[in-house]
Design goal:
Length: 444
């Protein structure tokens, strides 16, 4: 009997707060004069990088004891004196491993008349930055790359920005958000259009915080494209309180594990169900997983639900491509593992963006799936997997310093016949410091 029949996941779990929303709630606090309260902020090291940078910009951020719905917990208090109070930081803006920190903060400071020095760790230094810095330069910011064009480290000298129109070639919520943050400080209108629908946390937060913006719909080849339009913010926004939903990208690992482990039944609580993030649920359902979405409701402007997953163990391969990719960009490594344990073929195409994430995730997932015994072939923009009902494992899984790869390896360890060891687990903290503890908690 292989592991998939022996191991069971059972119980209820609320995974930590959403990383994307946490970055935004912290960064948008800059536009407030006063103190904001953020409940359930993500404990991810990436979010800590944003906190450190904002502290370098003069915000006062601290974790305090609090009480929500009768339960003792903590919240983050974020004190800001408004965007106009930001001065030249005395230190580097070090974004660690976090692309979101570096890209969103470049948009935030592009309109401020100081010099900001940005850098990140070795992985972040490899990631493309011109996709956000070129449009910011077009709005008036001055950027100087220190070592290599398109890459951190770089300095940015902010200036008086002019509103501009952008039709971005990449469906990236990070770039869109960075340009909208700059647009809120620019003269005239700034318009940002993307080639596909992405997570819309920024627009939802704009609405929740009463930041004015417009949505224009463009019809082309029977598809709707959204343009987001902002103008200069003329006054500070009111102090706010926000409760961050549980992170669907973290919940995704448990969804796949429970789907593949027969007799499992888990309930993931208060999961963010942003329409630009739910490929993981839609794809698993299409594959035949037994998933139900319960108690749909709204929290701080975001849709949330409880997600119940029951083990099925015989999933069916599917194809994922085109505009679907953007709504599961962070979940493709763990979905690929589900694909390796399915009947038939599991294919991913149009996912070249995966090559410029925390690692080259196409190559990394293909290499690791081969190590556990899967039949997988790499192509330029994705991969094809011939699913199997059992996989040997008994190998060392390489995380390439990429948190999502390391967590996928820990789930592979549950599903394979022989133990799978992960070469580096430290990187898990980039998004989910207590992942191993929570996985153990659900494991029977
Ligand atoms: C994010 C957007 C995505 C995602 C990243 C977080 C965000 O990046 O991969 O983990 O918070 O906006 P892209 O927008 O570059 O695809």
């Amino acid at each position: 009997m292989n592991n998939r029949n022996k191991i069971i996941l059972k119980g209820q779990l609320k995974v930590p707060g959403d990383k994307s929303i946490s970055h935004r709630a912290l960064i948008f606090s800059t536009f407030v004069k006063g103190t904001n309260k953020i409940w359930n902020l993500s404990p991810a090291h990436d979010v800590n990088s944003t906190i450190n940078c904002l502290q370098a910009l003069g915000l006062e951020i601290q974790m305090l004891p609090g009480n929500i719905k009768g339960l003792s917990t903590t919240y983050h208090s974020v004190l800001s004196n408004g965007i106009e109070s930001i001065r030249q930081p005395s230190t580097l803006l070090f974004a660690g491993n976090s692309g979101t920190t570096m890209r969103l903060l470049s948009g935030l400071v592009a309109g401020l008349p100081f010099t900001f020095n940005f850098d990140g760790d070795a992985s972040l230094r490899k990631r493309p930055m011109a996709r956000v810095l070129d449009p910011l330069k077009a709005m008036g910011a001055i950027v100087e790359y220190k070592n290599q064009k398109n890459h951190a480290p770089f300095s940015m000298v902010g200036s008086s920005l002019k509103g501009s129109s952008f039709e971005l070639p990449v469906a990236s919520a990070q770039i869109q958000t960075a340009l909208l943050l700059a647009g809120l400080q620019a003269n005239g209108e700034t318009t940002v259009e993307l080639p596909a629908t992405v997570r819309d946390h920024t627009q939802r937060l704009f609405k929740y915080l009463n930041i004015p913006f417009k949505v224009q719909i463009k019809m082309q080849e029977e598809k709707n494209f959204e343009k987001i339009v902002v103008t200069k913010l003329t006054k500070s926004i009111e102090p706010f309180e926000i409760n961050v939903p549980a992170d669907i990208s973290s919940a995704a690992f448990f969804m796949v594990a429970a789907s593949c482990l027969k007799n499992s039944e888990i309930e993931l609580l208060d999961v963010g169900m942003n329409p630009g993030r739910i490929l993981i649920v839609e794809a698993l359902k299409k594959m035949g997983a037994n998933i139900s979405i319960e108690k749909n409701r709204e929290e701080s402007g975001e849709p949330i639900a409880n997600v119940r997953v029951r083990g099925n163990s015989l999933l069916q391969g599917i194809s994922i491509n085109g505009s679907e990719i953007a709504s599961g960009i962070d979940e493709l490594p763990i979905l690929a593992l589900a694909g390796a344990f399915s009947k038939g073929q599991f294919s991913v195409r149009d996912a070249e963006e995966l090559r410029v994430k925390e690692s080259d995730r196409i190559s990394a997932i293909v290499q690791n799936l081969k190590l556990i015994g899967a039949d997988v072939e790499e192509v330029k923009d994705g991969f094809d997997i011939q699913g199997k009902t059992s996989l040997a494992g008994g190998c060392i899984w390489k995380s390439y310093g990429d948190h999502r790869l390391a967590m996928t390896g820990l789930i592979a360890n549950l599903l394979c016949d022989q133990p799978v060891q992960i070469d580096d687990l430290d990187c898990v903290s980039i998004s989910y410091p207590n992942f191993v503890r929570d996985l153990e908690y659900l494991r029977q």
